[in-house]
Amino acid sequence: MMNISSSNRGSGAQASRPDVWPSGSAPLNMNHYANKKSAAESMLDVALLMANASQLKAVLGQGPSFSFYTPIITLISISLCLQVTVGVLLIFIVRLNLNDEQKHWRLNLMENVATGLVFMIVVVNVFITAFGVHTPNRGD
Predict the structure, then answer these.
(1) Contact 112, 59 (CB under 8 A)
(2) Neighbouring residues of 90: CB distance < 8 A, sequence distance ≥ 6
(3) Which residue, 57, 50, 51, is CA-closest to 73?
(4) CA–CA distance from 2 to each of 85, 95, 97, 133 (Å)?
(5) Count of beta carbons in the 10 Å neighbourhood of residue 22
(6) Distance between CA atoms of 64 and 105, rounded to whole angstroms?
(7) pLDDT (tens digit per residue) in 56-92
(8) For 133, which of 15, 55, 103, 139 could close a Cys bridge (C-beta 3.0–4.6 Å)?
(9) Does residue 120 have a pLDDT over 50?
(10) Angle formed by the axes of helices 104-131 and 69-95, to 10°?
(11) CA dist 12 to 2, 6, 21, Å?
């Protein structure tokens, strides 16, 4: 954790009292911060999940005549499965208390796994984009 010395917190009465923070703000609650971060990551995961579902719909709409039909379906399916896995993992991460030192090793492992899976999702989605998913023209 971050240790702020009294010389970094200002001068006068505040410098001599460790319980008073500048501008009346409270110290950073690491558990609250980690939960907010995981919730934001979950929202981004949901946005990408919706984008992949839309891409899947577009590919299925084009049918097997689309030149990269099977690879795109496979990549989108892999991406969707990885996203659901990351979402479930983030739920477990949020439920664990960061302030409990006995759970730090588990949280660290889960965060590392989630980061690795997110990297894999990015790589898979780069290939999905490279193969190109286009909605069919309707000739309106």
Answers:
(1) no
(2) 38, 41, 42, 45, 114
(3) 57
(4) 32, 23, 18, 47
(5) 10
(6) 47
(7) 898 888 888 888 889 999 999 999 999 999 988 888 8
(8) 55
(9) yes
(10) 160
(11) 22, 10, 12
Neighbours of 114 (CB within 10 A): 20
Backbone dihedral region for residue 20 (phi beyond 0: left; psi -120 to 50: alpha; all else: beta): beta
The residue assigned the tokens 């993992």 is 89
pTM, full prediction:
0.66
Structure tokens at 11: 């001068």
Distance CA 93, CA 88 (A): 9
Chain Cα centroid distance, residue 1: 23
Stronger pLDDT, 2 or 104, i.e. the higher one: 104
